[in-house]
Specification:
41% of the residues lie in helices and 12% in strands. It has an eight-stranded antiparallel β-sheet with strand order 2-3-4-5-1-6-8-7. It starts with 35 loop residues before the first strand and ends in a 7-residue tail after the last helix. It is globular and about 55 Å long. The relative contact order is 0.17. It is α+β, with helices and mostly antiparallel strands.
Length: 335
């Protein structure tokens, strides 16, 4: 029987998120299914052991790469496996190597996957956990995460609505995912500045050049829970580069770089599917004109009220989302 996400009732959390499956990957709404590359950071085992596990679970051949290892010709294509640093001692014996394996994550990076291929990632995480892979809550200051590189929709208006929905839901998603303190205190998943959220709420008809210009003005930084730089570079790399410091590293690709989720690979009530499904619900919110309009109005009202704290917002937006629960839960999701 399919398992579903645990109940969240803190601070007015919407029950819609209780009904998200842990094994099934929900389809992205509207239009053709979009691909997603996945990056998973974890500890507990070496990069070499992880690469061997990938080949055992998904097939393919293990080889060395400039970064570490890669598995070619797996069931989901080429998969990179390496330490998230140039610190080579983690592949050696001795105390230094043991320390590195503890605090420096091994990272697995897939190619963009079709949505029908995503369940292989869940199965791989289960296999890695069985041989000792550990997540971010296994110790202090680990900060291991999962990144979803979700292909952007071809329709720019939808892309903009998804950005707006994310700005309105960021605080809520942090609480729903119970983002670990070790990741909250480092600057890698900072929220967008409130002023950027204001602009998204008030500029629903923006064009690509407008979004790029505003992003450069408010948050020209990849260390955000939703890093838009790859997608913006895909839209207009020249405009983006003109606004960034010379030599700034860019990886143009038609994908949202969603960096918020923790990696909890060793926990039974977590899965990559859960994090993907939370993203799908975000996209459904973006496509719900009634809900998005209500959220825009609530944002403006709260931003105008200086007596309200940022911490009040998750409960406010959670109630609005819960009121649209029936519309958001479809395609066989448990109600």
């Amino acid at each position: 029987m399919e398992r579903f996400a645990g109940v969240m009732r803190l601070r007015g959390m919407p029950a819609v998120f209780d009904s998200l499956p842990l094994a099934t990957f929900l389809p992205t709404p509207h239009g053709p299914a979009r691909r997603c590359g996945i990056e998973i950071e974890f500890g507990g085992i070496s990069a070499e052991a992880a690469a061997d596990c990938v080949a055992t679970q998904l097939g393919g051949q293990v080889g060395q790469s400039s970064k570490g290892f890669e598995v070619s010709d797996s069931a989901i294509g080429r998969i990179e496996v390496y330490l998230d640093t140039a610190f080579e001692a983690a592949r050696k014996d001795g105390p230094l190597g043991q320390l590195a394996r503890r605090v420096i994550p091994v990272e697995i990076v897939t190619e963009p996957l079709e949505q029908g291929e995503l369940p292989h990632v869940n199965a791989l995480c289960d296999a890695l956990a069985r041989i000792g892979a550990t997540g971010t809550r296994d110790g202090l200051l680990l900060g291991f995460g999962v990144h979803l590189n979700v292909e952007v929709p071809q329709d720019f208006a939808r892309l903009l609505r998804i950005c707006t929905a994310f700005a309105l839901c960021d605080d809520l998603l942090r609480d729903l995912g119970e983002v670990d303190g070790s990741r909250r205190v480092v600057p890698f998943i900072d929220p967008w500045p409130r002023r950027f959220g204001d602009w998204l709420v008030d500029t629903p008809d923006a064009q690509p050049g407008d979004l790029i210009a505003r992003y450069l003005k408010d948050t020209p930084n990849r260390n955000r829970a939703l890093d838009l730089l790859p997608a913006l570079a895909h839209l207009d790399e020249d405009q983006l580069r003109r606004g960034l410091p010379k030599g700034h590293k860019l990886s143009p690709r038609p994908a949202f770089h969603y960096r918020l989720p923790d990696c909890r690979i060793d926990e039974a009530n977590w899965s990559v599917a859960l994090e993907w499904n939370r993203w799908v619900i975000l996209e459904r919110i973006a496509d719900d004109p009634v809900l998005l309009a209500d959220m825009r109005r609530a944002w403006r009202k709260q931003r105008a009220d200086w007596s309200r704290w940022r911490g009040d917002w998750p409960a406010t937006v959670g109630k609005l989302i819960e009121a649209r629960r029936t519309a958001l839960l479809r395609d066989g999701v448990a109600a």
